[in-house]
Write a structure and sequence with these properties.
0% strand; mainly alpha; 181 residues; elongated
Length: 181
């Protein structure tokens, strides 16, 4: 592992940490955090490692933001989360799929948190049953179809999940870099 990768992993962890704190306190992920990261990461990679690495960082940002952007367009995700995934993809541009790994792990953390919240309220089984009925509803007779319950439309803040996923991605790289010193 190179020093540049360790620095990028530490920066990704820092950006995700600030975003998680801001999301927890205010319910939004600010542009002043994400947009400079999206722009500065390819420039830094270009200056440090050449044009090929800068293009890889841009490709990683676009790849990391594609599915979140589609979810944003459907109203299923906030714009700050999309920009944060793009920023993390750009920062971890040394690995083209790192942003997608972070994204997948963040969604898994959000799923666990949402299920835990529903279980705490005592609504988990009813909500899962409703989700199954709504999903297969078009194939069922009209009398068995149900409307979507309110819990299926509840919002989940992703900042903490994104931070935990970034920590899971960054920690091994930072430990390896530290042990190499």
């Amino acid at each position: 592992m190179s020093l540049a990768e360790a620095v990028a992993a530490a920066l990704a962890l820092g950006v995700a940490g600030v975003a998680a704190f801001w999301d927890w306190r205010r319910g939004e992920i600010p542009n002043w955090l994400t947009l400079p990261s999206i722009l500065a990461a390819p420039i830094a990679y270009g200056l440090a490692s050449g044009a090929e690495q800068a293009l890889l960082s841009i490709a990683a940002a676009l790849l990391s933001g594609l599915v979140p952007y589609l979810l944003f367009r459907r109203g299923a995700m906030g714009g700050g989360d999309v920009k944060l995934f793009c920023a993390l993809g750009a920062i971890t541009g040394f690995d083209l799929l790192a942003g997608i790994e972070i994204q997948l792990a963040a969604m898994a953390f959000a799923l666990v948190a949402a299920c835990a919240g529903l279980a705490w309220k005592g609504d988990l089984i009813r909500t899962l049953g409703n989700a199954i009925i709504v999903t297969v509803g078009p194939a069922l007779p009209r009398r068995w179809r149900q409307n979507r319950c309110a819990a299926l439309s509840a919002s989940v803040r992703l900042g903490t999940g994104i931070f935990l996923a970034t920590a899971g991605f960054s920690a091994p790289r930072l430990v390896l870099a530290w042990s190499a010193l």
